[in-house]
Amino acid sequence: MFDWLQDVLVTLGHPGLWRLYRRVFVASLVDEGWRYAVFALALWLLLHVLLKRRLAHRLIGHWPRRADLLREIAYSLGTVAVFAALAAAVLALLVSGHVEIYDDPGKHGLTWFFLSIPLLVIWHDAYSYWSHRLLHTRWLMRRVHFVHHRSRHPSPFAAYAVHPVESLVVGLVILLPLLVVPLNGYVVVAFGILEVTRAVYSHAGVETMPRGFARHWLWGRFVTTTHHHLHHEAVRGNYALWFTWWDRWCGTERADYLERFDAATAPRPAPIEDGAGATA
C-alpha cells in the first residue's frame, strides 16, 4: 500500500539526487516566497496604505495592528519553507515515477488539459472546507489552528500565517491529486497562482466586491472577503474558501453574513458640512 513512500525514501537517499532536491528546495523557496510577497504586499499596500482613507467605509472590522502584521509575516515565512519542502517531495515522486507532470498540453487530451483547472478549484474548495472543519476540532484547534486565529482582524499577510502542521495540510492540496491523475506543468503553476491569490484576497480585511454581490443568484455562490473575515471574528462558521455551497449545505454559514456584507458595501458617507457651508 505504501510502496510509493518506500520508493521515495530510497530515491531521497541517492547522494546525487539529494543535491538536486536541495537545489529544488532553494528554488521553490525563492519562487513561493516572491510570489506570496508580491500578491500579499501589493494588496496590503493598495487597500491598507494607499487607499486606506478612501476605503475606510469598506473596512469589515478593524485595521490590523503593527504587531499583528509582524507576527503574520513571521509565520508566513515558515509556511513558505514548508511549501518548498513539499515541492522537493513532489520532485522525489516524479523521479520515482509515482506522479506525472507533463509538458505537452495534448499528451492526455486537450479536454483534460482545460478541465483540470476548474476541477482542481472544486477539489480545493472541498478539501479546504473539510480540512478546515477538522482543524476546528478541540485538540487541533488548541494545538495547531489557534495560530491562524490570533488574527482576529487579518491583513493579507494572514493568508500564510499558520502553524507548520497546518501548512503541511494546506500544501497537500496539490500533491494528493498528483498521486491519482497526471497534471500539466502549466496547470500546476496556474493553480499555484490561483491558490495564493485566493488566500490573500480572503484575508484582505476590506470588502472590494460591489454592493449586492453576495445576494446575487450566481455571484453569491462565491466566498467574499467579508465571508471569511467573519470566521476570524467569531472563530466559528464560514469555513469555505472558494464557494459558499458547503457552508450552506452543512448549515455552517453565519446568519449575519449578508447583513455584514451589506454594511461593508454601503455607499460612502457624504461629507459633513459645518454651518458656514465648509466641509468638516
Give short descriptive properties of this protein.
280 residues; two-stranded parallel ribbon; 10 helices; 59% helix; globular
Report what the structure shows.
- With 280 residues, the chain is mostly helical.
- Helices cover 59% and strands 1% of the residues.
- It has one domain.
- A two-stranded parallel sheet has the order 1-2.
- α1 crosses α3.
- It is globular, with a radius of gyration of 21 Å.
- The termini are far apart.
How do you describe this structure in short?
By secondary structure, this protein is mostly helical. It has helices at 3-12, 15-50, 66-95, 110-135, 138-143, 164-178, 185-202, 225-234, 245-250, 257-264; strands at residues 101-102, 183-184. The protein has one domain.
Number of strands: 2
Q: Indicate the radius of gyration in whole angstroms.
A: 21 Å
Please state how the strands of the largest beta sheet are arranged side by side: 1-2
List segments where confidence is low: pLDDT < 50 over at least 5 consecutive residues.
none
Domain count: 1
Q: Give the CA-based shape.
A: globular
Provide the structure class.
Answer: mainly alpha
Question: In which range does the helix fraction lie?
Answer: 55-70%
Name the average pLDDT: 89
Biggest sheet record: 2 strands, parallel
**From N to C, what is the helix and strand string?**
HHHEHHHEHHHH
Separation, N- and C-terminal Cα atoms: 72 Å
In terms of DSSP E residues, the strand content is: under 5%
